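Appendix B, Record 12. Input sequence as logged:
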Amino acid sequence: MTLSRRHFVAGTALLAAAQLPVTALAQTYPAYPIRIVVGYPPATAPDVLARFLAQRMAELLKQQVVVDNKPGAGGQIAAQTVAKAQPDGYTLLLGEVGSIAIAPPAFSKLQYDPARELTGVSEVGKVDLLLAVPANSPHQTVADFVKAAKARGDKINFGTFGAGSPGHFGAEVFAEAAGFKIEPVHYRNTGDAVTGIINGDVAGAFVSTALGAAQIKGGKMRALATSAPVRSPLLPQVPTMIEAGYPKMDVSAWFALMAPAATPPAVLDLLAREAAAAVQSPDTKAKIVEAGFSVTGLSRADTDRMLRAEYPRWAGIVKASGFRGD
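Logged structural output:
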């Protein structure tokens, strides 16, 4: 055997040996419980979606799938946890627009890089935002709200569920489009924000349909419009921002199952298929829709395209707002 031939055979053997662990992992996966890390507390919209997803995925994968809540910093703690985790498919993230697409341009000292350290598995759902006002607000329509805001001559208090959140930038985009100024009031947690809106401490806020529907049906808030392209089946009486004359209010919050970037492709493909199948199965889909979400269940390729489009889009929105989180 010539020297070049020996080198070729030896190199091929080394390459095959190097691939054995990845191949073995793909063939035996999942051999033990999978963890989906969520950056928000139990009973919040991301947690509810994650639990529906985990329950059905466990049935499809025939392996336990647990939800691990790591709240704090608008989902950034959870995102960092998964970005630094072993890329073996056992630690996943329910990523959302705030910590994945908004945080990088908004926070210069972010401890993780979503575009480099995380990869999309499947976008599983979206939740639209409602322009909500206190139940005793004099404003019955978006036009009423805008007219009053312009007449003030100074900034109006606008509640948010945290600096850099979709609701925060939804307010910024709305104010810019309508021609008035806001003073964001950033609440530390969901409960405080809801109380602030109900008590009239702020003129309004963008809240998720998943959170706001119950409050609105209970008469504690009033919804003036939804950011969705069509009316929500949960609140069919609430018009869209498009109907109100603001067609560019596309600030829905998406949720995507994500994994550390170096996770084996075969594992990612399996997870993507089962995640999409999980949210699209009739029983689970019905529960997710009833909770205020719209179901997507995108493929890996479509999720990747979505993420590559969202990174520059939100970078532009953040830059235009002048917001810096640190």
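Residues 129-226 form a domain with the D-Maltodextrin-Binding Protein; domain 2 fold (CATH 3.40.190.10).
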